[in-house]
Specification:
two-stranded antiparallel sheet; binds zinc ion; 3 helices; alpha+beta
Amino acid sequence: MSKREPIRMCIACRQRASQHTLIRLKHKETDIVSYDGSGRSFYLCNICAQDKKKKKGLAKRFKINEADVDKLLKEIDG
Ligand SMILES: [Zn+2]
């Protein structure tokens, strides 16, 4: 009965989860931003979004500031 949801993978821990439980982001030049409907996106799970080590890894991967990753995730979280 329940509709099957699309499954996506968190890029930090590689766990798969329903798309709606993941945070969708996008890599834009030298920054990562909230996905706005265009370009290439990636997903991050809520656990990694609060994990200091994972955030650090993400910052390294995209060559951006860890503080920027933090700020972005806080903004998305509301
Ligand atoms: Zn994750």
